[in-house]
Amino acid sequence: MKTLVTGANGFIGSAVVRLLLDQGHSLRVLVRPDADRRNFEGLDLEVIEGDLTDNDSLKRAVTDCNLLFHLAADYRLWIPDPDTMYKTNVDGTRNLIMAATDAGVEKIVYTSSVATLGINSDGTASDETTPVSIEDMTGHYKRSKFLAEQEVNKLVKTHSSPVTIVNPSTPVGSRDIKPTPTGKIVLDTIRNRMPAYVDTGLNIVHVDDVAKGHLLAMEKGEIGDRYILGGDNMTLASILEYICINQNMSPPTIKLPHNLVLPIAWFMERIADITNKEPRATVDSVKMSKKMMFFSSEKAKEKLGYQSRPGVEGLKDAIDWFNSEEYS
Q1: Positive or negative CA dihedral for 251, 253, 258, 263?
Q2: What is the residue range of 117's domain?
Q3: Nearest one of 2, 4, 85 to 50, comparing CA atoms
Q4: How many domains in the chain?
Q5: Is residue 192 part of a domain?
Q6: Nearest to residue 233, comparing CAs of 317, 169, 151?
Q7: Does the pLDDT at position 281 exceed 80?
Q8: Would residue 260 count as lying in a domain?
Q9: Residue of 75, 142, 181, 207 with fewest CB within 10 Å of its CB?
Q10: Per-residue exposure over 107-143, b if at least 16 CB sit within 10 Å of its own CB, e if not
Q11: Residues with Cβ < 8 Å from 50, sequence gap 6 or more?
């Protein structure tokens, strides 16, 4: 049995790859020619070079595969040319799933995000049924993932594509080589670059638990259904407090109003437009932080047997990994 994984060099993707190899899967991965391959270096797998915008490479990648885990995505909260993100996340996802279906792939797990879900205004945890629309999507990343999910659902109905969707929350842990926006929070905190914070909340989950959820979705997930893969709902203040206590540091005590941070983020983006370097804060991230991004994984627990360890264990693994790799 041949299994294809896209995004295998990424944070969640590399954790999925390791679990699949542990279970004896014969693996093929699709990666860009210029991709950072440290996350799967030395592992026993077949590499196909290409990307989601190259249909020929998609057809080569899915040939003779039985299963597909589609994790590859353009995940950035600031991007100079948003069109490239939509071509990758929306068009690329549609083209890959169509190619896989036409090639006879038996089951597909598509990695979406909790970014596509509704958020309760009262701060309680949202689930897969919380109302949401495209108008609720802040920024190009969220919009592109929302539209990609819509394309996947269409293909399930019109193309008989055998897809189950998973919606990871905010993973943390080892091998966050980029790092992700949440990884940057951890890194900035342990490097004394987090003097203040805003009042927000995240659902923190260990990346290895998210990876296990992917395999459970492949095994037990219903076609056309979706499952939140999350962990603990934590305020940003409590996240920073845990990180600082772990590192024998004093946590930041200055809580900034969102409307004060917004013009600072706008100014940082204008500088980024000139330097072409990602800003430390973005307008979209500040807007998103106005809500408590809390989610429930009860459906995945009930239907898939999904479990997650305490979120702080993921934070500790992230801290230890950034320190061991001497990230600055």
Answers
A1: negative
A2: 2-171+206-231+295-309
A3: 4
A4: 1
A5: no
A6: 169
A7: no
A8: no
A9: 181
A10: bbbbbbbbbbbebeeeeebbbbeeeeeeebbbbbbbb
A11: 30, 31, 32, 56, 57, 58, 60, 61
Instruction: Kindly state whether residue 199 falls inside one of the protein's structural domains.
Output: no
- Assigned domain for 261 exists: no
* DSSP label of 224: T
Rg, C-alpha atoms of the chain: 19
Predicted confidence (pLDDT) at residue 275 exceeds the cutoff of 90: no
Bridge partners of residue 4, in order along the sequence: 28, 68
* CA within 13 Å, CB half, 72: 29
CA gap 167, 301 in Å, rounded: 13
Residue-wise pLDDT for 35-85, tens only, equals 999 999 999 999 999 999 999 999 999 999 999 999 999 998 778 889 999
Structure tokens at 153: 């659902």
Task: Specify the CATH number for the domain of residue 50.
Answer: 3.40.50.720
Q: Per this entry, what is the length of the chain?
A: 328
